[in-house]
Amino acid sequence: VQLQAFGGGLVQTGSFLRLSCVGSGRAFSNYGVGWFRQAPGKEREFVVGISKVGVTTWYSDSVKGRFTISRDNAKNTVYLQMMSLKPEDTAVYYCGARYNDYAPYDYWGQGTQVTVSS
Question: What are the Cα distances from residue 75, in Å, to 12, 32, 36, 38, 92?
Answer without folding.
Answer: 30, 15, 21, 27, 24
